[in-house]
Amino acid sequence: MKMSWEIDESIIDQICDAAEFQISDILPSEWAEQNRFMTSDVSAMEGMYTFNNSPYVREIVDFLSPSNPYRILAIMKGAQLGLSTGFIENGIGWIISQQPGNVLCLVGHDDLVEKAMGKIDNMIDTTGIRRLIHSNANRTKNNKSGDKDRSKEFTGGHLTLGPTNHKTLRQ
Predict the structure, then answer these.
(1) Would you say 48 and 36 are in contact if contact means Cβ atoms under 8 Å apart?
(2) Is the pTM of this model over 0.85?
(3) What is the secondary structure of 76-92 as a DSSP string?
(4) What is the pLDDT of residues 91-116, one digit of tens each?
């Protein structure tokens, strides 16, 4: 018989998992340059990520920091300027590892979801934060990874990736 004061081991595991990361004051741009390695399959410039190639993205990604007083950011830009890598992918990595919270990432069409998640998976692997991806809920034994085709779960939040379809946004 379990006494009311006894603690379930799964609760202790959840507490330990929650303590695995720290909410820090490192800026997203600093985190990206310290942790992101660009492989040859995602960039022509293999090596550690640097904002030297697209310096204007540094300020944009740092808007994600809680110390930034602005809450709305609108970007008008051209194509192939490094914003997907510099802002979206690096920003998601920083959120997962440094400032956990919920992320909804929308792409133009359903066919682009798999490609976008492939880039995010590459970022997760090359920054060493794959260990932070796990299920937030106790589910059946076969479904505990928290790593799915269109979503990632991590302590403190989750990432959902989908198309900008008004019919699916309501979900």
Answers:
(1) yes
(2) no
(3) ---SSSSHIIIIIIHHH
(4) 999 999 999 999 998 888 888 889 99
